[in-house]
Amino acid sequence: MTEPDDDVEILRVNGTINAEPVLAALRANGIPAAAVGEAVGRVYGLTLNGLGMVRIVVPREYEEQARELIAAGELQQLELAEDETPEG
Question: Is the Cα dihedral 4, 16, 78, 87 positive or negative?
């Protein structure tokens, strides 16, 4: 399966469960993102030898913003907006 010409892959993760937080972070920041993955891995929950590999794709015009967000997440530099701060 190929993504449309205007979409670009920004990250690969093992399994849908690992893709969901990334997709949520991108979408919460206004970046339309989608997961493209191996159907067999998704059906059977396999993550061995590339089965279950999920590619995160975004429209080309959001690529730089998405990569910056991913980098900030990897450096643990993401911040919650003031109204999203957990109570505690």
Answer: positive
From 1.10.150, 3.30.70, 3.30.2010, 3.40.50, which CATH number describes the 7-70 domain? 3.30.70
Q: Is the pTM of this model over 0.85?
A: no
Q: Contacts by 81-88 with C-beta closer than 8 Å and gap 24+? A: none
Angle between helices 16-28 and 63-74 (to 10 degrees): 110
Tens digit of pLDDT for each residue in 10-50?
999 888 888 899 999 999 999 999 999 765 554 555 555 55
For the chain, how big is the Rg over CA atoms in Å?
A: 14
Structural tokens at position 29: 């920041």
